[in-house]
Amino acid sequence: MLSLPCRRILRTARRSGVIDLDGKVAVVTGAASGIGRAITRGFVAAGARVVAADVDEAGVARTAELCTDPGAVVPLRADVSDPADVAAAVETAERTWGRLTTMVNNAAVSIPGNVLETSVEDFDRMLAVNLRGVFLGCKYAVPALLRAGGGSVINMGSVNSLVAEPVLAGYTASKGGVLMLTKAVARDFAALGVRCNCICPGWVDTPINLAHAERMGGIEAVREGLPDWQPLGREGRPDEIASVALFLASDLSTFMTGSAVVADGGMTAI
Ligand SMILES: NC(=O)c1ccc[n+]([C@@H]2O[C@H](COP(=O)([O-])OP(=O)(O)OC[C@H]3O[C@@H](n4cnc5c(N)ncnc54)[C@H](O)[C@@H]3O)[C@@H](O)[C@H]2O)c1
Fold first, then answer.
1. Which CATH architecture has domain 4-269?
2. Domain spans of the chain?
3. Are 238 and 205 in contact (CB under 8 A)?
4. Tens digits of residue pLDDT in 13-38
5. Which keywords label this protein (predicted)?
6. Which residues' Cβ are closer than 6 Å to ligand 1?
7. What pLDDT sits at residue 147?
8. Could you report the per-residue pLDDT of 199-209, keeping only the tens digit for each?
9. Would you please indicate which residues are annotated as catalytic (active-site) residues?
């Protein structure tokens, strides 16, 4: 429990912040690490309450501890490829805080390889987590968002929703699907007050890239070569993607739906 002065400071910080998520209730998947952890922390700092879902139970507990108000987070073990787990995450938000206003479908896995190298099992796994997981997140969240009178779905795509790169065939296929699923959901539910947008990050400093970096000669070689293909010349930080999610969750983006919002350090401008 935070002391009263502490809570006052938090309230002031939220009010002075550009983005106010006071009253928003979110589910964030893949919340144990990287971008999902940064989104959870950013949402809570802006006044939202969050069900932080991930297969990594210890990781989501740690995410809650790192938030400015750990009491605003329910850490939950959930596998996004499992319909029962995704339904339970949505139900937890509604049971705990009475509504769901925001669904962030962020969890993903990446297993590098071209189509010859990628096993059928690995391809199925990427599709199950990265695309079926987003489908389930939309399927179970949209009815809850409608019960809340409308809301925002934020799907985590990638620059690979827009462009392919070498030896990432299965991941790229899954992320292309995420963008088109985003557009389908946006069209089907716009008139009912549910917005759905897709964030497309470039290379961000998180563990998901480690196997891919190995294929590219190791993470240090990737960092050295970055200026050649990501013009800002450095890896993105998870909080730089989280700030896009904050905007899409907020009432500053109420005219946006079906969009691919690119935050890639200029990678796709080349
Ligand atoms: N890091 C990048 O460069 C980059 C670039 C473009 C897009 N993205 C996307 O950003 C999102 C977040 O990735 P990240 O970079 O933070 O990576 P990360 O590896 O740090 O986080 C991914 C999280 O997803 C969780 N997860 C994996 N399978 C799951 C499942 N079945 N159910 C629930 N949770 C599961 C992991 O436990 C982990 O906590 C992903 O959708 C990723 O594709 C990342």
1. 3-Layer(aba) Sandwich (3.40)
2. 4-269
3. yes
4. 455 567 999 999 999 999 999 999 99
5. Oxidoreductase
6. 29-30, 32-36, 54-56, 59, 78-81, 106-109, 129, 156, 158, 201, 203-204, 206-209
7. 98
8. 999 999 999 99
9. 171
